[in-house]
Amino acid sequence: METYNFFLNKAGRLRSGWRLGIFVVAFAIVAKLVEMMTLVGLSLLLGRYYQDFLAGYAGFVVQAFILFISATVVGAACGTVLEDLPFRALGWAVHPGWLRDFVVGSIIGAASVLLAALIGMIGQGFHFKFNSLTVSSAMGKSLFFSAMLFVFAAAGEEVLFRGYPLQTLTRARLAWLGVLLTSLPFAAAHLANPNVVRGVTFANTALAGLWLAAAYLRTRSLWLPLGIHWAWNWTMGAVLGLPVSGITKLAPTPLLRLVDTGPQWLTGGAYGPEGGAICTIALLISIAFVWWAPWLKATEELKKFTDGENAISQQPHQQGELDQQGARTNRSS
Description:
single chain; mainly alpha
């Protein structure tokens, strides 16, 4: 009769719940250390002006850097130490089709937010005007630098929420639990943003977490959700001039200017589409598209990394038993 082991699973590995707990604790420690080292380095370089530096646009870049480095290092370390997996298993590898996944994800993300904007326009919630041509230089800088920021910020959030936590539970055949345990904290992390619409914001952001998790599970790579994530934010802020999760200063000179005339329940008001019904509708449509699109699929190598537990090899143990049996046979003869 098979006995239950509280710490180890059938593959001889530490159970996924313990692995997830180790990641959370290690990430909290490493993120704090990286933050402290970053702040010390900035204070040495900039002196007393470093706080002003962080209060501006650069503060978002520094925050994204801390998140990305910490989650990547801890995720890769947990995969190696706890599950004997290579760095490629984390989803950042340049695998066959990675660029296609990133480009397709970018198109899906941009198209989804444009769909939300179209729904808002049809519902007479808002309309758009082109920015003045006199700010074309500033507009170009805003489009470019905000793109860099949104890619980096999205990479940090993806490797944290769709990285090791979701992946280790997927290997334990608990992908549904992984989606739940990553989407809800992802939503909660946005509740401190300006102009938040608590109930709707939480629901829509959790829905976005499901959307991005579906993108990961279809490809077992972080490139598709990264493309979706950054392009959604960039199109919303830098192209359409909409608030991105309540924040307006990430793209100071957008291509278009928003004229919001609709009810907040529809458009999200000062928080942006993610606080309104237009986001809910667009996300539901895009989730269905991502999940059922037949040409979104993982490579065999990436599927192998996440389809099940990486069992501990029994060959050394078995060889040791054979050697002992051989020694006993020689002694008896």
